[in-house]
Structure formats: C-alpha cells, structure tokens
Specification:
Blueprint lengths: L1 H19 L10 H5 L5 E9 L8 E12 L3 E10 L2 E12 L4 E8 L4 E9 L2 E10 L2 E13 L2 E9 L7 E10 L2
Antiparallel strand pairs: 1-2, 1-10, 2-3, 3-4, 4-5, 5-6, 6-7, 7-8, 8-9, 9-10
Length: about 180
C-alpha cells in the first residue's frame, strides 16, 4: 500500500509539473498562407481539353466555391461538365513550410486523386506532379497566370519523356463570380 501511495504522489507531481508548463504558442500563418486568399470566392471555369490520356477532347465548364479553412488552407468544391460527363471535385491548397512549397490535393467523382506541389513567382503559379499512366511515368505541369484580382488563365501540360517535350492538354479561364 505504501508503494502505491508513493507512486501516486510521484505521478501527481509529474502531471502537475506538466500542467504548469506554458503551452506552446499557436502557429501563425506566414505571407505564403495569406497569398492563398487569392483563390477564395466563387469562380466559373471554362476551357478546352485536347484528346489524350484523360479522355476525349472538347469544352468543359464548372463552378467552384473556395473558402479558407482557418488561415492555412483553401478548400474548393466544384461541379461541372467535362467532355466525358459530369464531375464533382474537392481540392485543398496549402503551404508546407518544411518543403517551402505549396501543396494541392484533389479528389473527384471519376476516382482520380491528384497531388501536386507548387511555387509562385509574381503573378504566375507553377504546379508540378508525377504519376504512372499506362505503365509510363508522366510529368504534369499546371500553370496559372493571374490576370486580375477576379480572373486567371491556366493550362495543363504533360510530358512522358522526363520533361524534354511538353504537350498542352488543357487550357482554360477562371472568372470570379462575386
């Protein structure tokens, strides 16, 4: 019984000391996180897809609602029509200070998951990705050009030869609705 009492006293001292420590301060968003706010709001997307590994070519359109999750992430929900039919998507953009890179993860109703990392320079964002497609490694490059506070253009290029030759597969424009 005496050992149990001594053990309980020691445990209470350790817990008390831990509780007396000041909690670590909440992290603060950096300028990279603030930069993400450009993408918030309601957007309309329109563009063209060329025939390729992602399906038949043709026009596409969608609407997107993008909101900040705290001060660190943009969560985007979109619905639209692609040449292969209707599609919905959820995407999250953030900034990873360890990688010193922006991150993009998207999941859609066609069963696709896209993970890209990005950099921004001035009004141009360049997102890069790699994935296996049909037994071959493919590199992707998604380029966004901010035209104004309420519009941007974009294109998606693909390379199957380690980045020596790029083929443009998607070109589009986004316009802020509100």
């Amino acid at each position: 019984m005496r050992k149990l009492t001594i053990g309980m006293i020691c445990l209470m001292m350790v817990v008390g000391a831990a509780l007396a420590q000041a909690p670590p301060p909440m992290p603060k968003p950096g300028p990279e996180h603030q930069r993400l706010k450009y993408f918030t709001g309601q957007w309309k997307h329109e563009g063209d897809m060329k025939p390729g590994p992602f399906g038949p070519g043709g026009k596409f359109s969608s609407t997107e609602d993008a909101k900040m999750l705290g001060d660190y992430y943009v969560v985007m929900n979109s619905k639209g029509t692609m040449p292969m039919g209707p599609v919905s998507e959820v995407a999250i953009i953030g900034y990873d200070p360890k990688q010193k890179a922006y991150t993009y993860d998207a999941f859609n109703t066609m069963g696709q998951h896209d993970h890209s990392t990005g950099q921004v320079s001035g009004d141009t964002w360049i997102w890069t990705s790699e994935e296996e497609m049909g037994g071959k490694m493919m590199k992707g490059k998604f380029i966004i050009k901010e035209v104004s506070p309420t519009s941007y253009t974009y294109r998606f290029d693909m390379s199957t030869d380690d980045g020596n030759t790029w083929t443009s597969l998607v070109e589009g424009k986004a316009t802020k609705l509100k």
